[in-house]
Amino acid sequence: MPTVLIVGANRGIGAELARQYAALGWQVHATTRTGARPEALAGCGDNLVMHRLDVCDADQIAQLKRALGEVPLDVSIHAAGIYDREGGAFGSGPPIAPETVFAVNTEAPIKVAEAVFDNLVRAAPSRLVFLSSADGIRSNGRQLRVYGESKAALNDRIRHFAGLWAQRGVIGIAMHPGWVRTDMGGPDGPVLPEQSAAGIRITVDRLTPAQCGAFLDFRGNPLPW
Ligand SMILES: NC(=O)c1ccc[n+]([C@@H]2O[C@H](COP(=O)([O-])OP(=O)(O)OC[C@H]3O[C@@H](n4cnc5c(N)ncnc54)[C@H](OP(=O)(O)O)[C@@H]3O)[C@@H](O)[C@H]2O)c1
What we know:
single chain, seven-stranded parallel β-sheet, binds NADP nicotinamide-adenine-dinucleotide phosphate
């Protein structure tokens, strides 16, 4: 049975990814800040194992590494992320400090990936997927918000490490999940979490080693940086 790690599975796209992989019979390791199984995953069976992880907490990242031990990971998907104001992209809440946005969206995904990298190498060729955003595309000339800057900086790191990951048989990519109807994407998002997660799964399944370092959307289309 293949094994997947979903980082940030409390709600939204991460929860739906965990639910779908579990329903398909995968061994699923999923993280939430509490470590409790969220309501959205209540119906999943024993092939779902929960872990407690605030992605900015170095001790908890180390604990996740210990808990996984030598488990080979076929896929790791980092879904945890925040917008740059409370209430998501279409909310009207107060801004979140840029250093917090960068800590969660840019630095934490790489630190978690480093912690589980040996597990991915054990299952090579394996997939290391970061939920980034089309809001982080610099080349279309728009002024980026703090959120977009944090995702563009994540993309920079993915491109920086891609060559090293490829040498070890790990296909690392940036993935835009679509504009998805979640707390972050808001109620008008045209893509449902079920559709986004299904597209991500299929795209991840079809990845080839030559795509290491790519930026793809959830339908598998390449995106500009
Ligand atoms: N929705 C969209 O339209 C869209 C578009 C482009 C990219 N994305 C990206 O896709 C990813 C998932 O988005 P979403 O729409 O599913 O967002 P969401 O519904 O707001 O869910 C965010 C998830 O991230 C978790 N999280 C946030 N900070 C965390 C932390 N410090 N430690 C651990 N978990 C943390 C949340 O956990 P809690 O419940 O504990 O807060 C929650 O499970 C994000 O990286 C987002 O930037 C989304």
